[in-house]
Amino acid sequence: MVKKHLIIVFLCLNIYAFAQNGNISGYVMFDNNKPALGALIVLENTTIKKEISAGVSGAFSFKNIPFGEYTLNIYSLSAKGKTEKIYLNSKNKAINLVLELTHYQDLEQVTVNTKTAKKKIKEKGFAVSIIETKNIALQSVETNQLLDRTAGVRVRQSGGLGSHAHYNLNGMSGNSVKIFIDGIPIRNFGPSFSLNSIPPSLINRIEIYKGVVPAHLSDDAMGGAINIVLNKTTSNQLRASTSAGSFGTYKSDINGTYRNDKNGFTVRGSGFINYADNDYSVWGDQVAVQLSPGTPDVYIKAKRFHDRYRSQGIKAEIGYTNTDWADKLLFGALLSNMDKQIQTAATMEIVYGNRFSKQNTKMYNIDFAKSNIIKNLDASVFVSFSELNRKTIDTIATQYSWLGHPTSYYNDPDVWADGAEAGRPTLQRDIDQTLNSRGNLKYAFNPKNNLQFNHLLNTFTRDSKDPKLPAIENALKEERKYMKNIFSLSFENLAFNKKLRTTVFAKSYHMDRTSKIRTRTGNSSNSEIEIEENNIKSDDLGYGTALSYAITPKFSVFGSAEKAVRLPEAGEVFGNVAANVNASVNLSPERSKNYNIGISYNNFEIKNHTFGVTSNFFIRDTEDLIIQLPIGNDEEFFQNSNVGKIYTEGFDFELNYSYDKTLFVSANTSFFNARDYNVTYDVDGNPITPSYQRLPNTPYFTMNYNVRFDKENLIQKKSKISCYSNLLYVHEFFRHGNILGGAGKTIIPTQIALDTGFAYTFPKNTITLSFDVRNVLNRQLFDNYALQKPGRGFYGKLTYKIL
Fold this sequence. Notes:
By secondary structure, this protein is mainly beta. The chain folds into two domains: 2-114, Sandwich (Immunoglobulin-like), CATH 2.60.40.10; 119-231 and 261-279 and 291-401 and 419-801, Maltoporin, Chain A (Beta Barrel), CATH 2.40.170.20. The strands form ten sheets. The chain has a 22-stranded antiparallel β-barrel. Strands 8-13-14-11-12 form a five-stranded mixed sheet.
């Protein structure tokens, strides 16, 4: 498959060599012979429309344009508009334009209509939220915090910095929600390069698709997708930041870009370092100690003592951008590593004091894109290879309690019978190798109709070794292989004067996985080791549509529907020893029918007041939903299971208000009702949910309120201060199914989290200082199975713009 992608690139480059394309360039000047800085130049004909702004000298350039007749429309707030007809029939076409200056009173007659990337995405009919980071990138906040403030989104972390996070979109969670960086699945980048490792200052915007996902993202996202779009600046810049805060938290990052404007040679690089002790206090019905044998448990308030997290990473790209022959051709490399102490098992009832994991990732990639590689055809290819080395260390049998030291009576430490804290002693090393490729072709029949083809290939292999195992077990060679192929085809149409936008798509899903895993049979005293072999294949077809209709430029309705399929991920099937996740080799694909309908009314203005509202209603009809559940009497491990037939319906609502570009208020509410049609049982034979009861461990009602105040020149001239506050409400929800769990352990209580802070940018816009207080009320906050998150914390951040 990789060879096919490389052949496509080769053919496209050769076809392009014979294409009849040229360049249009020139200068826009005012009639007083001064350059028309910032003038908007629009180039269009029946098949192409491109926009560009004039530079400092009034220069502009359109590169690699097919031969033909075009119209140039030029707009400026300081001059009368102008239209020119030109015919391109040579490699380079030069044209100079002169605009007639106008008086101030004529300015109101000049209207320039252009659409932001945010508006273009929202017009496609998908239920999508957009987070633009321009005004919040300098705050001492993490990417997951920004997501958690969005309607219909719930970020569920199992602890402090470095803990695993699940993303819940309108009732769908886990791997049903796919995460992308610039359209590339994040699994390629390794665990240490997570969303929280990417500082908001590196992000241009975050696209959150709820339910139906556009075909160009290619992957098998069934419950939605989060696409992180990084900054693609072509200007030379270098920026660094460092932050420190409570619980021994330190974070630093640096990023920069260099581009040669003459030949397009481009270098981009970024790096980060994260560290946290995560020694915050925990308390509640799972934080108990036994002071002496046979005595009742005593509930205490304790500090986490074995949860240190460290990660580092660098990412670099080198190549060419915005040239005649390619929009981009970049060769990239990513190196990252992480080591983490492991404090608890699946819940806080079991405490570890010597178990930890280490891992490092290497990834290499090539990224190519070219618009109009031949007339009206855009092409892009991304290919990457990554290797993750992970080691789990658990060799000491000493038992620990929440007092922070080994449990002992009469100076004799207690030990676990199996020889280690989480079972048998282990020094297991996993080597995961992943090959990923994504190809995209987009053909525009005309400005109103285009056809797009996408292909994603993902292969995975794991080689595991554990020197702590007996030689007879190590002699039985294990094998884990996984491959998935996804093909998608979509067609987009604009009708009724571009008011109605319709997208229809189809996806073909193919999976082939093989495993040979050691298993034990019989009782522990007389058990035998044997290899269990599995080979599972699946072929599925999905399809859907998305529509939007602009009743007015500011008011639109949208809807989408699809039959979606989600293939089990390699990590769900093969497990992860470091994360206490057992293998589940017989997992079936998830299948769901998703429906969305909503309205959007934005930029409604009354004098200095601006309002916006978006509402989305949804239905999910899902079979074989994959859920990660704790297993065993002590709930020490996780295992993924298919849960019968889940029906979900709900809505999310978002209101935005701003006053005079100074005061900004947003409020959102999300509610859904997810219930199981049938009784579903976990691997131990216990019912997960009685018939038609709520899905366990799933918050279903949340509200979020955010206020921000921006003011320039308040303390110093040319300075800016931003003050902000965010309030999150999560209604109580069941930890287990209604009929499971002991008294006081079945419900995760209602949670209220208040964060506040400010950011101050000094004159010249080179230094920004920010300070945040998270969980101001010091409330007890939970997400996954009563795993408590940090209490009140104080964090400061310094950002310095070097270039």
